[in-house]
Design brief:
The complex is a heterodimer of chains A (about 425) and B (about 240). Chain A is mainly alpha-helical. Chain A is built from 17 helices and seven strands. Chain A has a three-stranded antiparallel sheet, with no helix packed on it. In chain A, helix 2 packs across helix 6 (about 135-145) and helix 9 packs across helix 11 (about 285-295). Chain A starts with a helix and ends in a 7-residue tail after the last helix. The relative contact order of chain B is 0.14. In chain B, helix 8 packs across helix 12 (about 195-205) and helix 10 (about 165-175) runs antiparallel to helix 12. Chain B is built from twelve helices and no strands. Classes of the chains: A mainly alpha (about 425), B mainly alpha (about 240). The interface of A and B includes residues 385, 421 and 423 of A.
């Protein structure tokens, strides 16, 4: 009798487990096109699709350096192995030539390829699933107009078990729910438009959030290290990082649209986002994103432990080097110069706890992106050829501890890790 | 009442400071490209001694050549991550303006001591540069890069004033395909025909040849060129 009861209990548990899996399974969700007119090759659809592709920054992953646009081939390094963006051009043999509008919806909304295979979430369908069917159809209409390029997709190089469909199915079970963005009735239209762009096509949290051990982005935009390329995408909700609660909306718009604002400039991977995507959006859409980002609930931050001031000799070396190398452009008062050179005083890109970006900026230098609003940006020299690890550490420690800044010092060993320029 | 103006005056400097608009800097290309001149030098700040050992002179090279190289870095036809990083998000228009700017400059270049180089190597270098080697099917450098080796308009670079290591590494890059130009890639063809000894001879001789009094590129070359070059195509007849 007891044995039978035990058996029944086990059976019930197993059945419950299966039922949970089935219920929780992110079943492909199909939303039909409004009408074939939604993806017809009309000038309106094509123009809107091209615009939405900019909003999604599709080109970034689907174009190799110097390669044909949207023909794929760019390598994306992840902790699970290397993936290659596939060919999106309408070549029947190697691209999307044989795809229907429904096939495209399946990929964008459900993360399922035309052959039924589950797609890797490096393609951020966890975000794109929020895109409306109408917008997906416009994207499809535009994709059909690209010049077809015959370029076979490079097979992904993922390690076991990440290369198996079963592992992917399990991942989706845990971390993926398909569903179009739903406007919040209690919020203004502009906020909703911003939410749609930031959480959907913009896929901001693909970088600006911490990924868990399974590579799934955590909810919110609370910042994260980009492991493949060695940059830190700051929190967009923490006041000590890139939280925008205290910024005026016009300054957020200015930064996202032109790459520079009085408080700072975009650099590293964000320069790419502004250069390839955001600068091409309408001011109204960028403003909607700014409004949404500014309204993110602020992260509650524990007061930072008082930073030990850098060693006296580090400060002395840092000050001396800065007098030679920093202040001609950034000013002796650390306040920068108009939109040419960002301030160092109070610049959170320098003062946030994670120092990798500050180190990279000093080592690699660079230009903000050339944009319509800032077509001829001022550049910063790379200091890796002229300064040693110890010297760079002294400079970064000094600027993190001067003009009211109070961030911990960095070490030469930290600098050394980031000497090489990260490229795809 | 009398105290008030003094009170206001006492605080004025602080108020003015707080409301002062941010400092402005010169609205010039020279100011914008300080990121470039830190390594490549400018007429007012020549490159640092360390930089001279590798970074090439860009001042005075034809604008067409400089523009091609900037876009080659951006699009992966040349491999030098730091350069790709610098130009990655700059537009064609801006890169053209930067190329034009550097093409009009002149910076005296350091010259390697000839006495420090083996005489046989220098002799072989001079032969290859000025006469070429018909057995190897290698034309003379001067046939395309100008009799004074100062390059030719619009897009052939001058060769004097370049560091020896830089020249050597470019030949290496052409040989292994990591430096490419518009097809047909004439320099890749030439590099494949030269032995490493010949490359060393050429770079030693070039790096030790003083820049001529007139460093400007020649306006036009005798056509056709000995080899078809995608970066310097024959004019359409």
């Amino acid at each position: 009798m007891t044995r039978r009861r035990l058996l029944i209990a086990v059976l019930v548990l197993v059945l419950a487990g299966i039922a949970w899996a089935v219920l929780a399974w992110p079943r492909a969700q199909f939303v039909p096109s409004r009408s074939p007119q939604a993806w017809a090759a009309t000038p309106e659809n094509i123009a809107r699709g091209a615009y939405l592709a900019r909003a999604g920054d599709c080109i970034a992953c689907h174009t190799a350096r110097g390669g044909a646009a949207y023909a794929g081939g760019r390598a994306i390094d992840t902790p699970f192995g290397r993936l290659y963006g596939p060919n999106l051009t309408p070549d029947p043999a190697t691209g999307l030539g044989n795809w229907s509008a429904d096939d495209f919806w399946q990929a964008l909304h459900n993360g399922i390829g035309r052959d039924g295979r589950l797609l890797y979430p490096a393609f951020p369908y966890t975000h794109y699933t929020k895109v409306t069917r109408d917008d997906a159809d416009a994207l499809y209409a535009w994709l059909r107009t690209l010049p077809p390029v015959r370029q076979a997709n490079r097979p992904h190089a993922l390690r076991f078990p990440y290369d198996s469909q079963l592992a992917l199915a399990g991942w989706r079970l845990l971390w993926f729910r398909p569903g179009v963005h739903q406007d919040s009735a209690s919020k203004p239209a502009e906020w909703n438009r911003g939410a749609y762009l930031v959480e959907g096509l913009g896929h901001c949290s693909a970088c600006h959030s911490t990924r868990n051990a399974f590579g799934a982005a955590q909810a919110g935009l609370s910042g994260g290290l980009l492991p493949g390329i060695g940059w830190y995408a700051p929190s967009l909700s923490a006041g000590s990082e890139a939280g925008l609660g205290d910024w005026e909306v016009p300054h957020i718009v200015q930064l996202l649209h032109t790459g520079v604002a009085p408080q700072g400039a975009v650099f590293g991977p964000m320069a790419e986002v502004v250069g390839r995507s955001l600068q091409h959006l309408s001011e109204a859409d960028v403003r909607a994103m700014a409004v949404y980002l500014k309204a993110l609930p602020a992260t509650r931050e524990a007061p930072r432990p008082a930073a030990l001031p850098p060693q006296e000799d580090t400060l002395k070396l840092g000050r001396q080097l800065c007098e030679n190398h920093c202040i001609d452009c950034h000013g002796g008062d650390g306040r920068g110069a108009a939109l040419a050179y960002p301030p160092l005083a109070g610049n959170r890109a320098l003062t946030m706890m994670e120092p990798v970006n500050a180190i990279r900026i000093v080592l690699n230098g660079g230009f903000p992106p050339a944009t319509r609003g800032n077509p001829r940006p001022y550049g910063m020299p790379p200091f890796s050829p002229v300064l040693s690890d110890t010297e760079v550490a002294a400079v970064v420690s000094y600027v993190r501890a001067s003009w009211g800044n109070a961030a911990p010092a960095v070490t030469a060993a930290q600098v050394n890790r980031y000497r090489a320029v990260p490229l795809d | 009442m009398r105290g008030l103006p003094c009170f206001v005056l006492a605080f004025l400097p602080a108020v003015v400071l707080a409301q002062q608009p941010a400092r402005t800097v010169p609205d010039t290309l020279a100011q914008r490209v300080l990121a470039c001149t830190a390594c490549h030098g400018s007429p007012t700040t020549p490159p640092a001694r360390d930089s001279r050992q590798y970074f090439p002179r860009i001042a005075g090279k034809p604008a067409g050549y400089l523009y091609n190289q900037l876009t080659n870095f951006r699009e992966g036809r040349r491999q030098y991550p730091q350069m790709t990083w610098m130009v990655e998000h700059l537009s064609d228009d801006y890169l053209r303006e930067i190329a034009d700017y550097f093409s009009t400059q002149h910076i005296p270049a350091p010259v390697l001591e000839r006495a420090s180089l083996p005489a046989a190597q220098l002799a072989r270098g001079q032969v290859l540069v000025t006469r070429g080697d018909s057995a190897l099917q290698v034309p003379a450098c001067i046939a395309c890069h100008g009799a004074r080796l100062t390059g030719a308009l619009p897009a052939i670079p001058g060769l004097v004033g370049l560091p020896r290591d830089y020249i050597n590494s470019q030949f290496g890059a052409w040989r292994n395909g990591s430096r490419r130009a518009h097809a047909p890639d004439c320099m890749a063809t030439i590099a494949a025909r030269l032995s490493l000894e010949d490359v060393a001879a050429i770079s030693a001789w070039l790096a030790s040849e003083a820049q001529p009094a007139d460093p400007s590129p020649v306006p036009a070359l005798e056509r056709p060129l000995p080899l078809a070059c995608g970066s310097a195509p024959e004019p359409r007849s």
